[in-house]
């Protein structure tokens, strides 16, 4: 029984596919659940619009017009952080989204992977330091990335070297959810073939994407999760405008030959992805990051050694404040 | 007595004393129709931009077969740009065209795409070189002309502007051949976004001095001029490619792409610029593409080459692709090392021989000295002894 996303019209319905565990730290009713997502993909695949559509409001302002004089120079990759508070089925989520414009846009993109890896590791290191402090900071804000959404270009064929390298290198640090950006360029058959090819490539290259079935204790959820795995990678179409018709407001994308309804599951997987990301699997994502990915990293790091305990508490408080200041941007 | 000649065309009557040179265009028409022509088209762009589908749609035949999975997987990590040539002969109403389509798989597909346009540029220049050399041969019959007449550059519509890769590649290609930029898979942009993207692309092309093909606009009749103006205004062309026939909502069968939300038609001017591009390439401006290649681009190449090279000299090879340069360096290093090793070996051998020779020489000298000594003793005895007893000493 696949979880069906609540459509915009039916506000009253609330369905929970998997029960949420009630025991993990940092859950404060006032502030909301801490949830960090990263969006990675080449420019033009709809990352920013995806974020706006996900949060149902304009979080990211439209980019300024590019300068034609400097079009031959590639902008280096940077990390833009956006903070949004969402209310999903009675739960507050304090969502932090990190966008990575500039990824894969240059002539030589080999440096991008190291940058991403360093960023993610830095978040882990912060937690490692925090954990081993004698006096822990109660107001500590967890910046570990719980999900990385990777936008695949809709070529219609199969994965490219950039995609393969990224998933291979970052799969052990973060949950990767591959999605097909701008999926409205593919017909139904082409989309099916593309998804099949990608799945085959994922197996062939043994790419570590997020395995929905990692927790096999709950058999009912396992069945659902298997179905969800079958739909991966998710096809995403993002919203251009909101139309008002007799049923209420509908989020659409309009072309001369037709209109796509974003939230209609038969037309794209956006609604399903949103539900998985923000409702049904939010706990799974966080748990997997904390219990498996972070623990593996910690073990590796401590085995290698060279990670000493912090001596000076004051020095660390300054560090903490600097990190907190950065996250408020 | 009919006024028609053997082929059925009416015999021109010289009017008011003309000698009949006005008939030359008709003769030329006959010659050209018999000879046919040669047309080379190149398609450059990242994989998945619809190059193969476009070519097949343009020619309404499957000229290029889609690559199968195994080949594609091997190519994914190959890190090279290939040049594939597909040949076809098209015939329509007794006029035949030898068509060459050049495909460039691997372009822009890798993590490091530096210099990926070099194989493309080299190919174009090599065709000019081949033609130049053939022209200089004593026997010029049967020249193979593979000079590229038009290069379509497929831009992936990312909704913002051209990528640095596009800018660099188009600059290099546009300087050598008729470059026609094309927005691929245009059915992913809404009409407003498409207009904005086209404008931005043209802004970048102007600012970066990229040379693109400008079709001539003015012609004899008003209708053609109008059509040409529309074509120029629509550049860069936004295209959708499809070699399948589908049914629209109002029941027409058209070439198009069927989505759950509608049918995007290939030959509908409201949906994409396919018809304009086809007109440019084939129906109206093919001759102009061929003649500008020959008169402008090839001539420019010829002039620059002839200024620096003597007649009949081969072209000097310049530095190649960086990856090949690296390989060349590595090979050269290995070669020098091997040579050094061998030289050392020989030197040691030589020294051994020299030592041997010296030793033998010394022995020889010793023997020589001994002989000399004996000789001098003999002489001494000869001189000192009596002449009679000389030879009887034992």
From TrEMBL, chain A:
Residues 1-28, 305-329 are annotated as: Disordered. It holds the Pfam family Septin. GO terms for cellular component: cell cortex; septin cytoskeleton. Residues 1-16 have a biased composition (Polar residues). CDD domains: CDC_Septin. Belongs to the TRAFAC class TrmE-Era-EngA-EngB-Septin-like GTPase superfamily. Septin GTPase family. PANTHER family: SEPTIN (PTHR18884). This is Cell division/GTP binding protein. It comes from Linderina pennispora. The lineage of its organism: Eukaryota, Fungi, Fungi incertae sedis, Zoopagomycota, Kickxellomycotina.
TrEMBL record, chain B:
GO terms for molecular function: GTP binding. The keyword Coiled coil applies. Residues 1-20 are annotated as: Disordered. Residues 325-384 form a coiled coil. One of its GO terms (biological process) is mitotic cytokinesis. PANTHER family: SEPTIN. This is Cell division control protein.
């Amino acid at each position: 029984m696949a979880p069906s996303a609540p459509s915009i019209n039916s506000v009253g319905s609330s369905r929970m596919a998997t029960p949420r565990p009630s025991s993990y730290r940092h859950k404060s009713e006032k502030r909301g659940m801490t949830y960090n997502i990263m969006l990675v993909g080449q420019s033009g695949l709809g990352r920013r619009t995806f974020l706006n559509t996900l949060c149902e409001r304009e979080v990211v302002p439209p980019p300024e017009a590019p300068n034609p004089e400097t079009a031959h120079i590639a902008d280096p990759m940077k990390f833009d952080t956006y903070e949004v508070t969402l209310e999903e089925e009675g739960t507050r989520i304090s969502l932090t989204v990190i966008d990575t414009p500039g990824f894969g846009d240059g002539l030589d993109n080999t440096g991008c992977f190291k940058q991403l890896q360093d960023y993610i590791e830095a978040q882990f290191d912060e937690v490692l330091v925090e954990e081993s402090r004698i006096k822990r900071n109660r107001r500590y804000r967890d910046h570990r990335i719980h999900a990385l959404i990777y936008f695949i270009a809709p070529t219609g064929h199969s994965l490219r070297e950039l995609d393969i390298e990224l998933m291979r290198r970052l799969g052990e640090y973060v949950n990767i959810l591959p999605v097909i950006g701008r999926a409205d360029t593919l017909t139904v058959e082409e989309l099916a073939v593309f998804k099949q090819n990608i799945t085959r490539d994922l197996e062939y290259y043994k790419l570590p994407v997020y395995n929905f079935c990692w927790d096999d204790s709950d058999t009912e959820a396992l069945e659902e999760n298997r179905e969800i795995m079958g739909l991966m990678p998710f096809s995403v179409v993002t919203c251009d405008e909101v139309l008002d018709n007799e049923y209420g407001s509908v989020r659409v994308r309009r072309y001369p030959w037709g209109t796509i309804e974003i939230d209609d599951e038969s037309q794209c997987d956006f609604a399903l992805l949103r539900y998985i990301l923000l409702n049904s699997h939010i706990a799974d994502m966080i748990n997997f990051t904390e219990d498996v990915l972070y623990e593996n990293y910690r073990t590796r790091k401590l085995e290698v050694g060279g990670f000493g305990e912090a001596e000076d508490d004051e020095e660390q408080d300054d560090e903490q404040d600097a990190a907190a200041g950065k996250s408020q941007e | 007595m009919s006024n028609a000649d053997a082929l059925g065309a009416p015999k021109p009557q010289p009017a008011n004393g003309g000698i009949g040179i006005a008939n030359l265009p008709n003769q030329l028409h006959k010659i050209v129709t018999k000879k046919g022509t040669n047309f080379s088209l190149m398609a450059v762009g990242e994989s998945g931009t619809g190059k193969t589908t476009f070519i097949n749609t343009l020619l309404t035949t499957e000229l290029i077969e889609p690559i199968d999975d195994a080949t594609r997987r091997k190519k994914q990590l190959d890190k090279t740009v290939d040049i594939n040539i597909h040949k076809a002969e098209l015939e329509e109403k007794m006029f035949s065209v030898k068509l060459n389509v050049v495909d460039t798989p691997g372009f822009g597909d890798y993590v490091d795409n530096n210099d990926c346009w070099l194989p493309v540029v080299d190919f174009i220049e090599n065709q000019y070189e081949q033609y130049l050399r053939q022209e200089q041969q004593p026997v010029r019959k049967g020249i193979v002309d593979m000079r590229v007449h038009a290069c379509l550059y497929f831009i992936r519509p990312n909704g913002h502007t051209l990528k640095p890769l596009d800018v660099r590649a188009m600059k290099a290609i546009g300087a050598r051949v008729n470059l026609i930029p094309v927005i691929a898979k245009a059915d992913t942009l809404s009409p407003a976004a498409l207009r904005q993207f086209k404008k931005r692309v043209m802004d970048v092309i102007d600012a970066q001095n990229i040379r693109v093909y400008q079709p001539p606009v003015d012609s004899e009749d008003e209708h053609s001029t109008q059509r040409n103006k529309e074509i120029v205004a629509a550049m860069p062309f936004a295209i959708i490619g499809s070699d399948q026939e589908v049914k629209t909502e109002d029941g027409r069968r058209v070439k198009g792409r069927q989505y759950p939300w509608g049918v995007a038609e290939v030959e509908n001017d409201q949906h994409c610029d396919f018809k304009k591009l086809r007109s440019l390439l084939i129906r109206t401006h093919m001759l102009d593409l061929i003649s500008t290649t020959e008169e402008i681009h090839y001539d420019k190449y010829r002039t620059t080459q002839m200024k620096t090279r003597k007649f009949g000299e081969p072209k000097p090879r310049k530095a190649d692709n960086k990856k090949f340069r690296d390989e060349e360096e590595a090979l050269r290093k290995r070669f020098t090392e091997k040579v050094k090793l061998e030289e050392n070996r020989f030197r040691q051998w030589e020294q051994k021989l020299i030592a041997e020779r010296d030793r033998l020489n010394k022995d020889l000298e010793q023997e020589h000295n001994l002989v000399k000594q004996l000789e001098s003793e003999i002489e001494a005895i000869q001189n000192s002894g009596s002449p009679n007893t000389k030879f009887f000493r034992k």
